[in-house]
Amino acid sequence: MSARSKLLILTFCLLLVLAAASLYQLFALRFEAGDIFPAGSSLRSDPQGSMALYQALERTGRVKLQRNYRSLAHQKVTASTILLLGNSHHELATADKKEIAELDQLVAAGNRVVVAFNPVTTAPACTSAPAAKPVGPKPPKPVKAADTAWGISTGYLPAAEAPDKTLVKATLVEPGLALPAEIRLLSRLTLQPPPTGWRTIYAVDGKAVLLERSIGSGSLVLVSDSSLFSNEALKADRQAALLVWLMGEHRRIIFDEYHLGVSEQGGIMALARRFGLLPLIGVLLLLAGLYIWQQSIPLISAAGPGSDDRAVGVTHDSFSGLVSLLQRNIPVNQLLKVCCQEWQKSFKRELEQDAGLRKELHDAMTAQDDPVARYQRIARLRAERMRR
C-alpha cells in the first residue's frame, strides 16, 4: 500500500471519529437539558421540568426514588406515592373508563396518587353578546360532569381575578391540616368536584384548585397546577410545606414517565444498558473492526522495486517454506551431501541391494564438482534401476 493510501485511510478514520464525537456531544447536550422530554418530566432540567425536585428528594436519603417507564397497570405497586405530572386537563373529559378504574385500583392498594395538570394561563374569551347562529355542522354537545373522570368538571378563573402571568392566591379550606393558609398558583384552572366523595383542600373564591379523595387505604389528589413541582417554582417560589404534604408519608416515591409517552423500549440494547454490558459491546465492535481491517489490509507490505529481501512478497505455501528453510540452514556446498545422507537413511534397504547406486552416493558426498550434475546422475541411475 502506498503512503498516499495510508494517509487517506488515516484521514478518513480521524474524520469519522470527530463526526461520532460531535454527534455524541450534541445528543449529550440535548439530554442534559432535557428539552426533548414533555413538560413535567423529571428528566428535564429546564424550568418546565421536575428534575430539581427529584434530585432534592434523592439527596435527603430518606425516601426511595424511582422513575417509571412502564404501564403501572401491569405492576404490583403498594405503599408508594405516585406522581403523575404534566397532564392535560382535557383528559378528564376524554379519559377511558378502564384507565380510571386502573388508577382507582392503584389508590385502593394503599398508594397515594397525585395527578397534577399543566397550568392554564389563558382562559377562553367569553362575551356577554348573544352568540350568532352557527352555520354548518352542529357544535359538539357539552360534556356532562357525570361523564368525566371521577365526575370532575373544569372551569377558569375570571380575568379580573387572575390576569395572565400573575400568581393566583388560593386559601386553605380544610382547617385540620398543617398547611400554609395561603399558596400561590400560576394556573387559572379550577376543579369542580361532585357533591360527595371529595374534600377541597385549597380554593380561590369558593372554586377548588386542589382536591383529595380516599379510596380504600390510599388517597387520590388532584392539583390544578403542576408548576408547583417545576424547577422554576423550586427556585423562585418554593412551597416546601405543601410539597411535603403532597408526597405523603410513604418512603417510596415514583415519578411516572410512562403517561408522558416516555416508555422503556425492550430488546437487546435495553438489556445491555440494564446490566452494564455496553462497554463489552464496544470492545467487541472494536475487535471486529480490527479483524476486518487486518483481513483487508496486509500487515506486511509488498516488496518495493529496490528491495533485496527475497522472502518479502513470496507466496507462503509448504514448498516455498521448505525451500526457505533449506536456504537459511544449509550451505550451498553441503546441500548435496545432506541430501545423500538423508537418501541413505530413507532407502537403506534399496542401497544394500544395489552396490552401484551406493557407490554413486558415496562419491557424491566427497566430490567437489557440480552438485546439480551429480544429483541428476544419481536420479537417472535410480530411475533406470526402478524400470528393471
Structure in words:
The chain has 388 residues and is of the alpha/beta class. The protein folds into 4 domains: 1-31; 34-123 and 143-263, Rossmann fold, CATH 3.40.50; 265-301; 318-387, no CATH class. The protein is built from 13 helices and 11 strands. The strands form 2 sheets. It has a 9-stranded mixed beta sheet. It has a two-stranded antiparallel sheet with strand order 4-7. A hairpin with a 2-residue loop joins strand 8 and strand 9 (207-215). Helix 10 packs antiparallel against helix 12. The longest helix is centred in the first third of the chain and has 31 residues, at 3-33. Mean pLDDT is 81; it is low at 126-137. Keywords: Membrane, Transmembrane, Transmembrane helix. Residues 44-246 form the DUF4350 domain.
- If you average the pLDDT, what whole number results? 81
Q: Classify the beta-strand content into a percent band.
A: 15-25%
Largest sheet: 9 strands, mixed
Helix-strand topology string? HHEEHHEEEEEEEEHHEHHHHHHH
- Tell me the distance between the termini: 57 Å
CATH level-two architecture of the largest domain: 3-Layer(aba) Sandwich
Alpha plus pi helix count: 13
Can you tell me the CATH class of the largest domain?
Alpha Beta
Shape: rod-shaped
Helix and strand layout, with pairings?
Elements: H1 3-33, H2 51-60, E1 64-68, E2 81-87, H3 91-94, H4 97-108, E3 112-117, E4 153-156, E5 168-172, E6 182-185, E7 189-192, E8 199-204, E9 207-215, E10 218-223, H5 231-236, H6 240-247, E11 252-256, H7 268-274, H8 278-296, H9 318-329, H10 335-346, H11 348-353, H12 355-366, H13 371-387
Parallel strand pairs: 1-11, 2-3, 2-11, 3-10
Antiparallel strand pairs: 4-7, 5-6, 5-8, 8-9, 9-10
Pfam families: DUF4350 (PF14258)
Domain DUF4350: 44-246
InterPro entries: DUF4350
